[in-house]
Request: fold
Amino acid sequence: MTALAEIGLIGGSGFYEFFDSADELVVETPFGPTSDPLMIGEVAGRRVAFLPRHGRDHRFTPHKIPYRANLWALRSVGVRQVLAPSAVGSLTSDYGPGTLAIPDQLVDRTTGRVQTFYDTGTAVHVQFADPYCPALRTAATGAARASNWEPVSSGTLVVIEGPRFSTRAESRWYAAQGWTLVGMTAHPEAILARELALCYTTIALVTDTDAGIDEGDGVTHAEVFRVFAANVARLRELMVQAIAQVPVERTCPCPHALDGLTLPFELP
Reply:
């Protein structure tokens, strides 16, 4: 397929009006259908493919998102760099709702998700010490600062299975490890992107303080959506600025993630 886009954006509600005009594209993959058709258009002079992570009607809970189909479809239309905004909880009272965070590490605490494309045939072991693309993290950080939204430019995001929120004991345990953010969707997105030699970074909007960090009734679905909705216009504008700063040439390590490895099938 001729490249239709170079940058991928995996997001949620509030991003459907991201383009002035866009083409909708259904992409078939070996891993089933994507969360929704891709929307492809131009942003800041770059060709961008947007994919609603949970589906436009938010029908996919975090543990049911078709992560493999989503990443495969983005690569198949030409995407090589992926920005992934998401809502997260904070594991420290220093980061309140409305904080923007660009983590540099993640911890996988999911239990039932397929997190590899290479589960049959030849074993493929991909390096994952640093899960996020340094060039995309730099672009996102620079865009945030230029937009007067000073980000937390490092930290560890622990990804839980969901769809339930954490107990107080779990939150306190995560915080005691030195982890700073908690979410439900950044994994396996990050490792699947690496297995396709894509650049990938999470851009996290803190919507709540997790249950065990501050006293209170705990996290609620309604509160998460309220805070996200209050910040989504600002986050959408930040994504435009970040897209403009994404390097045209990939000089980061990500394109070489599969060098020297024997793959059981050809990538799109």
Remarks:
- The first helix runs from residue 67 to 76.
- DSSP finds five helices and ten strands in the chain.
- Strands lie at 7-11, 22-25, 38-43, 46-52, 81-90, 100-101, 105-109, 156-160, 181-183, 199-209.
- Residues 7-248 form a domain with the Rossmann fold fold (CATH 3.40.50.1580).
